[in-house]
Amino acid sequence: MLFLPTRPGNLVGIDFGHQHVAVAVSDTRGKILGQRRRGHDVDHDVPRAIDMAADMAKEILQEVGGTTPDLTVAGIPCPINRETGAVLPPRSLTGWLDVDAVADLSARLGCPVHLANDASLGSIAELRRGVGRRHRDFIYVKISHGIGAGIVLDGTLRQGAIGVAGEIGHIAVRPGGDLCRCGARGCLETVASSSALRRDLAAVMSLPSAEAMSIGQIAEPAATRVFLDAGAVLGRTLCTLCDALNPAAIVLGGEVGATVPAILTATQQAISAHTQQATASGVAVTTATFGQDNEVVGAIAQATMLAQVA
Ligand SMILES: [Zn+2]
Questions:
Q1: What separation in Å is there between the alpha carbon of 116 and the centre of ligand 1?
Q2: Tens digit of each residue's pLDDT (9 = 90 or more) over 9-20
Q3: 143 CA → ligand 1 middle, Å
Q4: Cα torsion at 174, 16, 163, 250 (round to 10°)?
Q5: Sorting pLDDT into bands at 50, 70 and 90, what band is 92?
Q6: Are residues 94 and 43 in contact, defined by beta-carbon separation less than 8 angstroms?
Q7: Which CATH number fits domain 11-118+294-309: 3.20.20.70, 3.40.50.2000, 3.30.420.40, 3.30.70.360?
């Protein structure tokens, strides 16, 4: 048998959220050797987020005895044009439109950089290392500050004509409802994102702000009600996807999806109650295999695949 030699620190995976930066370094086979996660207001300071990610990658590389990486895959919370690799704007501007993230990261790390959508990377983690081992058709939903999905059909991530498939956070669920960051009203994100939940939690718990709270660790009855209400709306949206696509699994990730049991419960109940019986009985609703690390694990899995192709 032939075993390829492995070198430490060849591949870098980066997950830029709205409020955090996570970095992992793996060997050539995709085994993660070290990782870091730090909070940062990425949306309002993308250049600093890029600096942080590069510094974190270099720190980990030094720790694991690596040098210049072969390849980096970085996920950002924006749709990306599948043909050109360009960041596509939502209806409001994003800080990612003002920078050349590929060139900036490539200059700092000294290697080629591929940019991807964060929820797409979360679904790649499931495809290569999670539910994809059992199911060829599933939908991964990242529910954090934003909400996005990776749709995997017949074992392949489907990104649509341009690359915007899965942007379910901006499906209108409450016409005329709250204003969304995209400029429209009543989007799913205004009801079930982490920022919408923190707004509602602050109201029911009589707090000036719930910004500092870890959403998954709140167990008060009033909070559970907030989660179940939001989960019911999220679940109804996912029912539509279930009836249209007949997935074998719905996987909930991100800060909200991976850590709040009531969101999982409400989603399961909505799918049981509102999808066709055959569809409902054939779909498992679970939490992300790697919890909040799904996106960075997916970045490493994607880098491993791209490095093998190169
Ligand atoms: Zn919106």
A1: 20
A2: 689 999 999 889
A3: 14
A4: -60
A5: low
A6: yes
A7: 3.30.420.40
